[in-house]
């Protein structure tokens, strides 16, 4: 946690040996394990991170979702830290930074999927000014990986690199099917991050009362009662769990995020998680012994009203088309993962935005697979989905664009200027080129 407005940490990115489900495994990790340490800061704080690269490949660090400068030693996705080198990051959170769960992970183009899949990720919490009244708070970092017979990280096949690699083992805070004990009648706050490279998590916790406080950096006006929560890679959920007696499991149930059509067929398929259900944790609810049962939700501390861009003056309208096609492959380029027909080129600016304006982006997905769009630094408000206006205000930094669909988001480009990126958060797609450069001036 931060002291006197400063948090200084060192993150050592390196391979290491850990135990997963009773097996010896060699994975990557920050500071000797996975997930990396949870960093807790407050709005207005300065976060200083020394990243040391003990990997065999270049890496860097991205603070996913934080509203901080995209340039210099801050959240700069163009920084390259070579093996054996270190880099001093400095992130200055504005005084009005929204509280919430964020996360950090490497962002070196072409290696992001492999490094995240290998174990490089951790949570960042921007603390609430006033705590939410619960008996316990848990941070659940959900990730996946595949180990080979020797316990080393399995390499992704070509088909997996196209569909987006999904691990055979799905971990909660680095553990396989951990036991979670709750007492009946108690209310807990579960803060969940989908740190999987490509796997969607459609989460259920049957038999328990679930109320969603928000997603990503956004909060609903009132908690929403839900049966399940869908998290695309990179998304976070802020969930209240009110326990009632019995044993249950936290599960990821099938979600069909589509396939890569012809391309997948050619390469041997790979449908990912569409057909499989995964047990993530075993939850045992013990009787509290006559304690108060499932009382009404106490008043939540007041929060800053999120800015609603539905009535804002829109300065520019743009269209982004997400496409997967043979063209790129046949042209000898990458695998044909494009935004507006182009693959990522770090030396090119794709989108130039005038600072302090509001823009409306139409996101069109022409492919047979979902693509979760992520924009750095500036959160998005979904205003239209599937042709229908959205009547709530929720700030998200990853919005899923389902296969063969379109949606509209609005973005307020305030606070910072500079160059950064937007991309598909199926990290294999990002590595394959589904990323663009934005320059806000
Ligand atoms: Cu979580 Cu650009 O990434
Ligand atoms: Cu990000
Ligand atoms: Cu994608």
Protein architecture, described:
The protein is mainly beta and 441 residues long. The protein has 3 domains: 6-126, Cupredoxins -  blue copper proteins (Immunoglobulin-like), CATH 2.60.40; 136-286, Cupredoxins -  blue copper proteins (Immunoglobulin-like); 309-440, Sandwich (Immunoglobulin-like), CATH 2.60.40.420. Helix content is 7%, strand content 45%. It has helices spanning 112-118, 158-163, 261-267, 326-330, 427-431, and strands at 6-20, 23-30, 39-41, 46-53, 62-64, 86-92, 100-105, 122-126, 136-145, 169-172, 175-176, 179-183, 187-194, 201-205, 209-215, 218-226, 228-231, 236-242, 246-253, 278-286, 314-324, 337-339, 351-353, 358-365, 371-375, 380-385, 388-389, 395-396, 398-401, 405-412, 418-424, 435-440. It has a 7-stranded mixed beta sheet with strand order 11-10-9-13-18-15-16, with no helix packed on it. The model has no long low-confidence stretch (mean pLDDT 92). CU-O-CU linkage (C2O) binds at residues 62, 64, 105, 107, 234, 374, 376, 423, 425.
């Amino acid at each position: 946690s931060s002291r006197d407005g400063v948090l200084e940490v060192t993150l050592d990115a390196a391979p290491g040996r850990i135990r997963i489900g009773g097996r010896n495994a060699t994975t990557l990790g920050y500071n000797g394990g996975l997930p990396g340490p949870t960093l807790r800061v407050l709005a207005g704080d300065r976060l200083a991170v020394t990243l040391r690269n003990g990997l065999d490949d270049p890496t860097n660090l991205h603070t996913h979702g934080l509203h901080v400068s995209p340039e210099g030693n801050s959240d700069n996705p163009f920084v390259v830290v070579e093996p054996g080198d270190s880099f001093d990051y400095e992130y200055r959170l504005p005084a009005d930074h929204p509280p919430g769960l964020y996360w950090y992970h490497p962002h070196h183009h072409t290696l992001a999927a492999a490094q995240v899949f290998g174990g490089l990720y951790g949570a960042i919490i921007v603390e609430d000014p006033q705590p939410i009244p619960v008996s316990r708070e848990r941070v659940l970092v959900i990730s996946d990986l595949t180990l080979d017979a020797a316990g080393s990280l399995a390499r992704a096949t070509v088909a997996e690199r196209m569909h987006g690699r999904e691990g055979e083992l799905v971990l909660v805070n680095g553990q396989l099917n951990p036991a979670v004990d709750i007492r009946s009648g108690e209310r807990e706050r579960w803060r969940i991050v989908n740190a999987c490279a490509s796997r969607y998590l459609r989460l259920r916790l049957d038999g328990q009362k679930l109320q969603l406080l928000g997603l990503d950096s956004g909060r609903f006006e009132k908690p929403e009662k839900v049966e399940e929560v869908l998290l695309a890679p990179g998304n976070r959920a802020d969930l209240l769990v009110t326990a009632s007696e019995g044993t249950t499991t936290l599960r990821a149930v099938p979600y069909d995020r589509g396939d890569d059509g012809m391309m997948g067929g050619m390469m041997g398929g790979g449908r990912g998680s569409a057909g499989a259900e995964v047990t993530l944790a075993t939850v045992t609810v013990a009787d509290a012994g006559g304690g108060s049962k499932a009382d009404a939700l106490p008043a939540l501390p007041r929060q800053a009203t999120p800015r609603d861009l539905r009535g804002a003056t829109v300065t520019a309208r743009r269209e982004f088309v997400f496409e997967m096609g043979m063209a790129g492959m046949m042209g000898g380029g990458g695998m044909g993962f494009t935004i507006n027909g182009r693959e990522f080129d770090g030396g090119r600016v794709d989108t130039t935005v005038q600072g302090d304006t509001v823009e409306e982006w139409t996101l069109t997905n022409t492919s047979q697979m979902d693509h979760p769009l992520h924009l750095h630094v500036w959160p998005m408000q979904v205003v239209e989905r599937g042709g229908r206006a959205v009547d709530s205000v929720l700030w998200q930094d990853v919005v899923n664009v389902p296969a063969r669909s379109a949606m509209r988001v609005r973005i307020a480009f305030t606070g910072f200027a500079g160059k950064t990126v937007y991309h598909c958060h199926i990290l294999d797609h990002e590595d394959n080129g589904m990323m663009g450069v934005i320059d806000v001036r």
